[in-house]
């Protein structure tokens, strides 16, 4: 591989990509023999103080973030008047390409869940991204998602570098309060990223954005079209009719992220993450979890299903009034904590029980189809004999079967 330039300990090889501010190179650390990505400010912009400030701020932002779903910062240095930002080198493809390749819904829900975890971490560290979009999300070959390009990110409490009256971000992913000029870019809070996450979810699960606009149109035309779209809407886009296979809980959570009024929207990505963590992503799994009988399951399986059933109202309450910090594993890191309330006891505390059956791994995908077929059989049998005398009370197995479907 040919070397374009050597800067300090780094050999710069081919250009991986670029934008209005700089170019990204594949690079190799000559002492460590390790591959990295190096972002370099374009020579023509070296004298631009605002560009320089943004570049340095991106490095400072990445340095404050440490999460498996966020691009990892390595170092920032200056050589011969040029700035060099070194980060980990990522394989994989942008999210929009992976979705268009026909990814399964289960994959897409996992990618969205990971994205929300990364943004929730940034919000907890006091950072707004402000330019979340499929092109800034990289899906690695192992299925992990990395959030890229913090070039216009800023601290939540800081004054924006962008001049007053200037918009930052990608027009089709801006929230309505920014499009309509009701909130200045410099004054927006975490609800900006929350609305954009809602748009990302809508696009990932339906294949389109909630408005029929050409995203490649000139920015001014897009802003005018978006202004007309949002000016006549009092409610945000609704996902249920467009994504019928998503669970009700996930649809409700995403709808809360897409509320037009930022004061009524979910306050930050952490609130959205708690709602997503509280329920399965797919409708078939949600239905099965609600119907399954936990009495004959192994304790760890029964506890997991019990938590999914009962954590949802707690999560909703947490959105309205987030609990005070306590020393438990961070939910944004993908950890689910199960507690037993003080003073509670179970049968397992006082007696020895026979071994219980483990939940078979095929039960979730097969259970939804089985329950639906069983309900159809019951309905057809009932409809097929309208003049027959009243049947005696059903036996216990039949009662259990109907309860399984209707629960």
Question: What average pLDDT do the residues reach?
Answer: 76
How many strand elements?
A: 11
Separation, N- and C-terminal Cα atoms:
62 Å
Radius of gyration: 26 Å
Oligomeric status of the shown chains? single chain
Uncertain runs with pLDDT below 50, 5 residues or more?
Answer: 159-165, 311-359, 374-379, 381-407
State the share of residues found in helices, binned by percent. 25-40%
**Largest sheet report:** 6 strands, antiparallel
Instruction: Describe the strand arrangement of the main beta sheet, using strand numbers.
Output: 1-2-3-4-6-5
Can you walk through the features of this model?
The protein has 13 helices and eleven strands. It has helices at residues 49-64, 95-100, 105-124, 176-179, 191-206, 219-231, 248-257, 269-277, 283-291, 299-320, 347-350, 363-383, 396-406; strands at 5-7, 10-18, 22-29, 34-41, 73-79, 82-87, 93-94, 127-128, 137-139, 145-147, 154-155. The strands form three sheets. A six-stranded antiparallel sheet has the order 1-2-3-4-6-5, with helices on one face. A three-stranded antiparallel sheet has the order 7-9-10. Mean pLDDT is 76; it is low at 159-165, 311-359, 374-379 and 381-407. The chain is an alpha+beta fold and 407 residues long.
